[in-house]
Design a protein that fits this description.
Elements lengths: L1 E4 H6 L1 H11 L3 E4 L6 E3 L2 H15 L1 H16 L7 H8 L2
Parallel strand pairs: 1-2
Antiparallel strand pairs: 2-3
């Protein structure tokens, strides 16, 4: 995470916004007389929200846990060759 003052952010707004979007690096902007704020791309924000949704959903977390167990034991669902071909055709 890049930290910078609000004055530096304001003076180089386009450069810093482009960096946040292109490099997926959040920016923490420090304000002298106020609370700090974060600048990040909309894509990164949506990904963070999805991650939080999954982590807060106990049934999804249980499904992931069960899936990891079957994966480690190598006894999960094995698709047929036709199913694999259909999946790989996308």
């Amino acid at each position: 995470m890049i930290q910078l003052s609000v004055n530096k952010f304001r003076a180089n707004l386009k450069t810093f916004v482009d960096k946040a979007i292109n490099d997926h690096v959040p920016l923490r902007v420090n304000r002298r007389a106020g609370r700090d704020f974060i600048v990040m791309s909309a894509e990164d924000w949506e990904r963070e929200r999805e991650t939080l949704h999954v982590l807060q959903n106990s049934s999804l977390m249980m499904q992931i846990h069960e899936s990891m167990k079957t994966h480690k034991l190598n006894n999960g669902y094995k698709p047929t060759e036709d199913e694999l071909n259909e999946i790989n055709s996308f």
